[in-house]
């Protein structure tokens, strides 16, 4: 239960940070989703490169990086 709540908090913070970095105009729900999915994307890319996120700060950094990649992909592929 606590792991789920911590993941939501990290996802929300990561999505918010990524939105600020990428100057994205999304609401808090989209930021939460971007942060959570960004954590998956960042974790996948990190594991392919040999990085492992251990600890809160590392998980936030990985999630922010993944969310930034998602925002960038969205802008390149969907938004004209």
Protein topology:
Elements: H1 2-21, H2 28-49, H3 56-77
Helix pairs in contact: 1-2, 1-3, 2-3
What brief labels describe this structure?
mainly alpha; 80% helix; single chain; 3 helices; 80 residues
Structure overview:
The protein is built from 3 helices and no strands. By secondary structure, it is mostly helical. It has one domain. Helix 1 crosses helix 2 and helix 1 crosses helix 3. The longest helix has 22 residues, at 28-49. The termini are far apart.
Number of strands: 0
As an assembly, this protein is single chain
Strand content: under 5%
Structural class assignment:
mainly alpha
Number of helical regions: 3
Using only CA atoms, what is the Rg? 12 Å
- What coarse outline follows from CA principal-axis ratios? globular
Tell me the span between the first and last alpha carbons.
Answer: 40 Å
**Unreliable spans:** none
Estimated helix fraction: over 70%
């Amino acid at each position: 239960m606590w792991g789920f709540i911590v993941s939501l908090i990290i996802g929300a913070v990561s999505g918010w940070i990524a939105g600020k970095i990428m100057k994205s105009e999304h609401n808090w729900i989209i930021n939460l989703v971007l942060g959570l999915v960004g954590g998956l994307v960042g974790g996948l890319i990190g594991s392919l490169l040999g990085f492992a996120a251990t600890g809160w700060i590392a998980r936030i950094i990985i999630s922010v990086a993944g969310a930034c990649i998602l925002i960038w992909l969205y802008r390149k592929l969907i938004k004209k």
